[in-house]
Amino acid sequence: MTVRARAELDRIAPYVPGSRACLPGGELASNESPVGPSPTVGPAITRILGSVGRYPDPLADEVRETLADLHHVHSDQILVSNGADELIYLLLWAFGGAGSGVVTADPSYRLPEICAYLASAEVVKVPLIDWRLDLRAMALVDADIAYICNPHNPTGTALDSAAVEVFVEATKAKLVIVDEAYVDFADHPEDISLLPGKVAEKVVVLRTLSKVYGLAGLRIGYLVGDPALIATLRKIRPPFSVNVAAQAAAVAALGDQEHRNSVRAYVKECRTRLTDLLRSHGYRVVASQASFVLVETDDSATFVARLAEAGVAVRRGEDLNMPGTVRITVPSPKGFQMLVDALDGDGATSSCESPRKSAV
Ligand SMILES: *Cc1c(COP(=O)(O)O)cnc(C)c1O
Q: Ligand 1 test: best mutation among 32, 85, 108, most atoms within 8 Å of CB?
């Protein structure tokens, strides 16, 4: 007889990850970096090969100190994690629980919803308006935890930090999770982010090294928030969740801000070209501040199949609770050409220049 899991888990639909492309350059389903990590990352990982027999530093102090400098906060305000995803699990476990409520947007990044059910919490999903978070309606929901993704996944829209601060004041939620996974790609991140100075006591800001720093495969992210809240999370986190390779890679990647800046510049530039390309083919595209664009199609299955034939994998809106749409990661120059070819050539005058290679 099959072992029966907790009844709460019946509410969780399985997570559908982005599909893998058949051709290199065509991996446009999972918002991975089109450029990859800093060239300093490889040597940094090689250097730790002699110490893989030892447990990692539990709190990743070197990473924390580097981040504290970068964000002008104290290192006690930072918790480094096995991807931002781990933080979503920990936060919902620690602050959710039976009888509690979580408010999120519909659609939004799905993990908070999954973790809410895992924590036996109830979930209220507030529909977007014009592809944007409806913060006013979200503030009216009687919830204990609010999840705000800014810029928003899967639409790419962004709200000014001032609007988020108004929400933080207005909501009754005792914890506001602000997920800034894509903030580096915004035209003006300083207008959108709550970092460094706008993190109220009940707010945590989530960041990841998976996106602009290109370390998705190593799993490292972090939270900026109140030290007392971090102390609570430390009680329940797996003590060694951030491995030695991830820590070494993070220090190297964070130390190469020139590479980070060139990735950011490339993504912004290519996002414009991608948007123009799709619009020139008659598609409606949501104006994006992230490293992907959301495309409205009349027939997403045909659109996805056409791209798949050309070796390009994208994310189906059906999997993101937005039927009819398709989410496309900003591609590398090669991926861009594959899209041009797949869309039938007449956008072929446009191209994405290779990002400038930063010195090793
Ligand atoms: C990619 C992503 C994350 C997860 O980042 P990891 O650090 O790879 O776990 C979190 N939130 C959003 C909105 C994302 O798109």
A: 85
Q: What is the CA radius of gyration of the chain?
A: 20
In the predicted model, is pLDDT for residue 348 greater than 60? no
pLDDT at 198: 85
pLDDT more than 90, % of the chain: 87
Nearest-CA residue for ligand 1 atom 6 is: 83
CB 51 within 8 A of CB 354: no
Provide the angle, in degrees to the nearest 10, between the axes of the packed helices 111-118 and 83-95.
40
CA dihedral 37→18→63→358, nearest 10 degrees, is 10
pLDDT at 346 over 60: no
**Other Cβ atoms within 10 Å of 61 Cβ, number:** 12
Rounded to whole angstroms, the Cα distance separating 146 from 134 reads 12
Span 147-178, pLDDT tens digits: 999 999 999 999 999 999 999 999 999 999 99
For the CA of 208, the nearest atom of ligand 1: 7
Residue 180 near ligand 1, beta carbon < 6 Å: no
Query: If you write DSSP's letter for every residue of 273-331 in order, what string do you get?
Result: HHHHHHHHTT-EE---SSSEEEEE-S-HHHHHHHHHHTT-EEEEGGGGT-TTEEEEEPP
Structure tokens, 232: 């609570």
The span from the CA of 329 to the CA of 347, in Å, is 18
* Mutation choice for ligand 1 from 87, 147, 179, 293, CB with most ligand atoms inside 8 A: 179
184 ligand 1 Cβ < 6 A: no
- Indicate the pLDDT class of residue 8, thresholds 50, 70 and 90: confident
User: Could you report the per-residue pLDDT of 296-332, keeping only the tens digit for each?
Assistant: 998 999 999 999 999 999 999 998 889 999 999 999 9
C-alpha 84 – ligand 1 centre gap (Å): 6
